[in-house]
Here is the input.
Amino acid sequence: MNKIIDLRSDTVTLPTEEMLQSILNAKLGDDVYQEDETVNELQSLASEMMGKEDALLVTSGTQGNLVSLMAQTNHGDEVILEQEAHIYYYEVGGLSAVAGLVPRLIKGIRGYIPPEELEKALRPKNIHYPPTTLLCIENTHNRAGGTVITPKQMKALADVAWSHNLKIHLDGARIFNAAVALDKDVKEFTKYVDSVMFCLSKGLAAPIGSLVVGSSEFIEKARKIRKMLGGGMRQTGIIAAPGIVALKTMIPRLKEDHENAKILAHALVKHEEFKIDLETVQTNIIFGHFVSKNLDAYQLAKELQKYGIKIGAYSRTQIRLVTHYGITSDDIKFVIDIIDKILSKTT
Here is the structure.
């Protein structure tokens, strides 16, 4: 069987052999009692890497964000988000349906809320308004094309938010992509936020799990909320063990994904059918449009699937391609050749 080149998302990554072996050797215990040694090791590693006091293993990024929002706010509070934030767009409305929070959306520039727009959005205390207590930042920003919000930009937002007593949560599902893209320690980003969620199961290629990090007080609250949401697990070391391997071995290789994404994006825009802002291709995500007289994005995806290539078609014109562990430079060359072949037949 020919190899499937799956560019729909970095969630499709498969664990390394070292990760699979680590599961067999993991020391296990009941994590609800906080007695799983492997989970404790992972959480200690995560908090140290992020420059925070404590950490908590959760099942997914969506659960991690929801737990964080609930631990940082009270029912009925207003939360500020960039208008296409993953928390608002793709997490089933949990911030309102479960957490009882009111989203306040601000249009960003490539996923970044200008500090002056944040300042303008903050209303004075008034009996008619919900209290605004939290700012959410997404870095890298998915729907903006995997764009990076720099530490300088994060500090500018923190200066505004903290001066108004807002806490800041970082949806850092791909925060290591941001750190690698700018060749900076991840703590240069996380020092400007109160809590962070990051994923083990995307570019880092672990099979499951995300981490929430923050102060000890925050994690104590988050742990209880995780239990309420059904996230209290038992011998969770079988999840934590590959997560430890991921954090220790998989971060530097993210650079390869970024290089492959740039090569692919530059090849695509040679075709007039692809409309991609190359300045947004900063990490491993290509987000753009495909406009053709003869094919729409769904049809293009079907044509590519005949050759074992999968891409994300989000509408008749909107596409997303994501590079990740398991996708090689040779795979990228093959994808480019096949797209050339398909488009040459339709013009």
Notes: The first helix runs from residue 17 to 25. The CA atoms of residues 179 and 185 lie 6 Å apart. Residues 17-249 form a domain with the Aspartate Aminotransferase; domain 2 fold (CATH 3.40.640.10).
